[in-house]
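Entry 14. Structure prediction run on the chain below.
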Amino acid sequence: MAVRVQREDFDAGHEIAALRRGRTDVGAIAAFIGVARDLNDGDAVTRMSIEHYPGMTESALEEIVATACARWPKLVEALVVHRYGDFDPGDQIVLVVVASAHRGDAFQACEFLMDYLKTSAPFWKKETTPSGSRWVEAREADDAARGRWDASGAAPGTRKP
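Output returned:
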């Protein structure tokens, strides 16, 4: 299981290949790539800046990955790469890759990780629009997505840790 917070871009194909290398116990890989958009809340976005606190951010991401591993004991590998710095629309921001023996666990764990990253990871986002800059507020939809994991105590088809 690995977590990286970095300025540099990532190559998803390379990261997935490295995660799989030498593994014959992997039956499924699910991946998510988050990309900077050019539109948010009806406004054009020309730039996004992401800030974080080194050390604290990595610890929080490691805890989120550990929670996923406890919920889905058949996970074989997980990788979270989250970038910080300044982004143009179309730039990659986050990569989540989950390898498991079975596809259901891989899909669910990948979705769980993204729901928790969106709500619990200590990143601060600022958008630049034609009318100025603004901090990105938390979305109710993101909180609701995370809440479904919290409310059930475990994902459907999994055991509680």
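The first helix runs from residue 12 to 20.
Filed with the rest of this week's runs.
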